[in-house]
Amino acid sequence: ELVSSLRSKLQALWEERELVLSEARECAERGEELEATVREVCKPNEFERYMMFIGDLEKVVSLLLCLSSRLARVQNAMRRIDGNTDAEEKQSLNERHKLLSRQREDAKDLKENLDRRERVVSGILAKYLTDQQLQDYRRFVQVKTSLLIEQKDLEEQIKFFEEQLENLEKSIP
Known about the structure:
Keywords: Coiled coil, Cytoplasm, Cytoskeleton. Residues 1-173 form the ASD2 domain. It is a single chain. The protein has 173 residues and is mostly helical. It has one domain. The protein has helices at 2-41, 44-79, 87-128, 131-171. The longest helix is centred in the middle third of the chain and has 42 residues, at 87-128. It starts with a helix and ends with a helix.
């Protein structure tokens, strides 16, 4: 029953992932349309700023999500430490925790810098775009970010349930 339940949950997650990937493709198409509009109306240096911001948006959000996920796994491993855990493993986990914490703080600084850059880009676009186009731009940035988060979350859930299923199947004679 448990194997069947895990397989069913995985199937639902795979289907949800396909929906999110479809939404991401639609978002990318809207992004391309928006890019063409921005290229038409902005000066080359302003367009370059826009493109750098959009490219960095995905990188910084992905970095933050990745570091947060890795940090959570290390914290979970640290919670499982008991009297049988050797000192070397404890030391390794503590060092990884410190490193990942520092890296995540650095990534948060990058995100704050990115947020400032978004305000600058938004100000530039406000000079050229209609209110509706500006609203479309803001919605695009918001949707792109939330889809990245949703994709990462689904991937983590899928990985977790696949590991659970694999471990369960190995335990059954």
